[in-house]
Each structure stands twice: as C-alpha cells, then as structure tokens.
Amino acid sequence: MSTNDKEGTRINKYLSEIGFCSRREADRMIEQGRVTLNGKRPAIGDKVGRRDKVHVDGHLVSENSEEDIYLIFNKPTGIVTTTDTTGERDNIIDYINYPKRIFPIGRLDKASEGLIFMTNDGDIVNKILRAHNNHEKEYEVSVDKPVTADFIQKMANGVPIMGTMTRKCKVEQTSPYSFRIVLTQGLNRQIRRMCEHFGYEVQKLKRTRIMNIKLDVPPGQFRDFTAEELSELRALLTESSKTQKSSSKGSSAKPKPTSKPNPSRPKQPSNQKAKPRSSNRSKTKSGSKNQKPKSRNASGRKRR
Fold first, then answer.
1. pTM of the prediction?
2. Which of 38, 34, 4 is nearest to 20 (CA)?
3. For residue 1, is it within any domain?
4. How far apart (Å, rounded) are the C-alpha atoms in residues 110 and 113?
5. Could you read off the pLDDT of 173-203 as tens digits, one per residue?
6. Domain match, 230 and 120 both
7. How open is the CA angle 91-109-70, to the nearest 5 degrees?
8. What CATH number is given to the structural domain containing 165?
9. Helix (H) or strand (E) holding 127
10. Are residues 74 and 31 both part of a single domain?
11. At a CB cut-off of 8 Å and minimum separation 6, what does 234 contact?
C-alpha cells in the first residue's frame, strides 16, 4: 500500500503542525530531498502515520508516539460504555482500570453484555464505525416469548424503526426463546427496538463477534489482540474502504445531458430575393413557427 492510501496527515501539513516550518517550505525541502519518511524520500502528498519517523537533514523531527493498544473486553451488564469518569460512576474506563489511556470503539447498552474493543488508536475507530462499510456484528438474543418462523423472517427482511427501515440481516433461531442475529449497522438500541416492533421484549442481549474477532474471555475480563487477529482486521478494513471508494466514484458519475440541436433556418441564396411577409396573419400556420427545445431542470434530478 502506498503512503498516499494510508491514514494519516500529509507530510507538509505534519511538519507545519509540529511547528517545524510552513507547508510551502516543507514542500520545498521535500523537493530538495532533505526530508525522509521511514528512511525513504517521500513524495509531496505522502502521509505520516502515528508511528512513522520523519527526518529533516538527518535529524529526527517526528514526535515519539506511544505504542498502539488493542483490547478485547467482555463487558458485563450494568457497565456504561462511556469515557465520562466524573459523571458516570459505572463507566467502562474505571471498571477496566487500564494503566494507559484507552477508549471504547462503539458502545453497548448498559443492560447488554459481550464483546467491545478498547484502544488508543483513533484511526481504527473511524474505520470500524463507518456504517457504509457493512462490518458484521453478531449477537445472541433471548426474548420473553416463543420465537416463531414468521418472527425470524420478518426480522431478517428489515424492520421499520426510528423513521427508517433496517437493513436486511441474518437471523437464526437457536432455541425456543432465543435467536442469533448478524447486523451490518448500529442504530441506537436497534435489536431491542426491532423486537419491540413485533411485540417481543429482550431479556438478554450479548455481542459475540465483531468482524473477524470472536468473544473468548469471561465477563469482566480482557486480553490483547493477537498479531494474526490485528493483521486480519486491518486487511478487512482496507478492503471495505477500497470498496466504498469505488462505489462512491461510480455513483457520483452523472451522465451529461444530451441537448437537442437547435435547427437553424437554411440560408437563402444571395441571388434570390427574400419573399415579403404576408400581411394576412390568419394564413400563417402555427406549426411553421420556430420553437426552442425545452431545457432540462437540473434541480429536478433525483438526488442520490
């Protein structure tokens, strides 16, 4: 992957933000070969990531960044996924009591339990939370009355909640009172609202998977990502980002409207006199008048 494709800050902006020089001066130094990014000469427009090393004239100018932290945490019920450690007594930060600053990726309701990621990497947070990337999240759900085939089918085909229709999803019954559901969006209290629409009340809701990461630690416990898990997760995020970019380019390309040519009157030969207009207007046919082609109204196009 080129340095233009990765997340980060353009190198001229980076040098400006750390107070080393202006963006214009940074571009000039890059062109002169005085700047290196991870030991190589960068191009103007290359990006600096959190752990990249930038040298100018052989001297390290990039700030030392802390090591990235990625945790798998099994959130118990009763814990609130917030970083507000002063206003919320049962916040997730104080509960984990990790020695370094971390924050949750997404959220789980206070009454829900299960898998949630904790990190200090803001870049990966944005990638995972982008709804259009269709990242899968799997849940085990128990309800207050028997699950029927009709209920499973309707849940899978989309449910009208919060003024919108939920995306189609995978739903599978696992016992008379429970089912498994895989979502690719994260509306507020989505599963609970979907069940309420059909007269069901959720008794227990547990998230068991996010993308390629499955829950495998006891409630209240956490562990680090393995190298394989993190590598696979990054690959999935890169692929979904590329898919979104290509689909956005395809949808934004609008065909140019083809305007009808305005027929011009044939020129009369110079040696032929033009016939005088008839004074009798009633003989003039309405079809002989020149009519301008109707122009298309750009505002009438359907918005995408």
1. 0.64
2. 34
3. no
4. 8
5. 999 999 999 999 889 999 999 999 999 999 9
6. yes
7. 60
8. 3.30.70.1560
9. helix 122-129
10. no
11. 124
Q: How many whole angstroms separate alpha carbon 167 and alpha carbon 170? A: 10
Both 90 and 224 in one domain: the answer is yes
Q: Which residues form the catalytic set?
A: 109
What does the pLDDT look like over 105-127, one tens digit per residue?
988 999 999 999 999 887 788 78
* Residue 52 confidence (pLDDT): 84
- Please identify which residue in the block is written with the tokens 């109707």: 294
Separation CA 225–CA 228 (nearest Å) = 8
Q: Which amino acid is at 298?
A: A
Q: Does 203 map to a domain?
A: yes
Residue 118 sits in the same domain as residue 233: yes
Report how far residue 43's alpha carbon sits from residue 177's, in angstroms, rounded to the nearest whole number.
Answer: 59
Instruction: Compute the distance between CA of residue 29 and CA of residue 189 in angstroms, rounded to an integer.
Output: 52
Q: Which residues of 230-255 are buried (b: 16+ CB within 10 A; e: fewer)?
A: beebeebbeebeeeeeeeeeeeeeee
Residue 260 lies in a domain: no
Q: Is residue 300 part of a domain?
A: no
72: left (phi over 0), alpha (psi -120 to 50) or beta: beta
Sign of CA dihedral 154, 155, 157, 160: positive
In three-state secondary structure terms, 228 is helix
Domain containing residue 176: 136-210
Note whether 45 and 13 are within 8 A (CB). Answer: no
Amino acid at 80: V
Contact (CB, 8 A) for 100 and 120: yes
DSSP one-letter string for 66-90:
PPP-EEEEEEPTT-B----TTT-TT
Residue owning tokens 């309800």: 143
Question: Is the domain of 42 the same as that of 140?
Answer: no
Q: Is the dihedral of CA 35, 37, 41, 42 positive or negative?
A: negative
